[in-house]
């Protein structure tokens, strides 16, 4: 593939991310404006923090004057799942040289899911992942600015807008299900996640479910390698 083809294909792969990021980041920008923070504050947070769910929580922290320790611990707990994501692409990121730190910083649920669907290998895959990460961040920042501006001009009801993120993951899940013959990891992930949701509740189930799913899959991989 030429560089132009890689950019074009990466853009096509990033369209589902764009469709969700634009609207959700607009909601974030509007909520920041409603809390008294101008669009440039929203943009600054999106450029430095860049983690959607926590950015919404951060609005409350900024408004209430929460301590730095509270903010830091909440950020760590809410985004600890991304530590597991990086394990999947550890070797790919190492080969990307100076771009490695940027890839780590821009790894999100959505870019992780889309990167998993890539069938390319080697340099093509590395370049494609970088373009997807760059475009995704641009989508989020553009939506943030648009939301901040719209929040100043017109009142908008935000009920239900966050469902587009759920819809994105459902679509990606179905796409990966259709492309792979081995559905055991997906079924395992669903079962363990549901059990953790029942036991730990909706606010605390993510981390234990990721630990359990990762552990079980690693054991299964070792057994397959030994057999």
Structural account:
The protein is mainly α and 227 residues long. The chain is 79% helix and 0% strand. It contains twelve helices and no strands. It has helices at 3-34, 39-48, 52-64, 68-79, 82-88, 90-94, 100-105, 109-116, 122-153, 163-179, 184-200, 206-226. Helix 1 (3-34) crosses helix 2 (39-48), helix 1 (3-34) runs parallel beside helix 9 (122-153) and helix 2 (39-48) packs antiparallel against helix 9 (122-153). The radius of gyration is 19 Å and the shape is globular. The two termini are 37 Å apart. The model has no long low-confidence stretch (mean pLDDT 81).
Key traits:
227 residues; mainly alpha; 79% helix; 0% strand
Number of strands: 0
Main sheet: strands, sense, barrel? none
| Mean pLDDT level | 81
SSE order, one letter for each helix or strand: HHHHHHHHHHHH
Q: What Rg, in angstroms, do the CA atoms define?
A: 19 Å
Class from secondary-structure proportions: mainly alpha
Shape: globular
Q: What fraction, in percent, of the residue positions are helical?
A: over 70%
Span from first to last CA?
Answer: 37 Å
Give the strand content: under 5%
What are the segments in which pLDDT stays under 50 over at least 5 consecutive residues? none
- Number of alpha- plus pi-helical segments: 12
